[in-house]
Design a protein that fits this description.
The protein is about 30% helix and about 30% strand. It is of the alpha+beta class and about 180 residues long.
Length: about 180
């Protein structure tokens, strides 16, 4: 089985708060309301995006968007701190979200591949994805891109009246070439 290929009218961009916060929020809130992709219960208010983008800027974390020819945001990907201890400095936790009307056309693969490219450039060593264990589509994409299952935490979430298992997938990169303590 081959993955769908995004149409030629899709291009990758760096998202900005001014231009893309509302579209990112719409995608996130749809996932909160209708899925277990996010273990949140309530949609986020628009002002939540101010702190979200501030954290990304302050830490140099990318926010990559896939847009169509008209500039409409079809999906986005980013990463953040995996754990807030210095020894985890070469590890990031990534996330990828695609607008529900755009799923199944290869945008997740396109966005994750761009995160991998940027991770190498940023001297990241490990990308970690925490995926709801029932999300077979996301798990399949990650496995096709070389991510390995590194563990599942059973029943750590509760949403939609049921317990949720969080599956962790990781991709180890060859970077950095000379990691250092401190």
């Amino acid at each position: 089985m081959t993955s769908p290929t995004p149409r030629d009218d899709v291009r990758l961009i760096d998202c900005s708060e001014a231009e893309h916060a509302a579209a990112i929020l719409e995608i996130l809130n749809e996932a909160i309301i209708n899925s277990t992709a996010l273990y949140d219960y309530k949609p986020r208010p628009p002002e939540a995006m101010v702190a979200w983008f501030a954290t990304k800027r302050a830490n140099g974390f990318p926010v990559v968007g896939a847009v169509d020819a008209s500039g409409k945001l079809l999906g986005f990907a980013s990463w953040g701190t995996f754990r807030a201890f210095p020894a985890f400095k070469y590890t990031v936790e990534h996330s990828v979200y695609v607008h529900p009307e755009q799923r199944g056309r290869g945008l997740g693969v396109l966005l994750i591949n761009e995160l991998i490219r940027r991770a190498r450039k940023a001297q990241v060593h490990v990308l970690v994805g925490c995926i709801d264990a029932a999300n077979t589509a996301s798990i399949g994409i990650h496995e096709r891109l070389g991510f390995k299952h590194s563990g599942t935490l059973p029943q750590v979430g509760f949403k939609f009246g049921r317990w949720l298992d969080a599956a962790f997938y990781q991709l180890n990169l060859e970077t950095p070439l000379q990691p250092q303590d401190g």
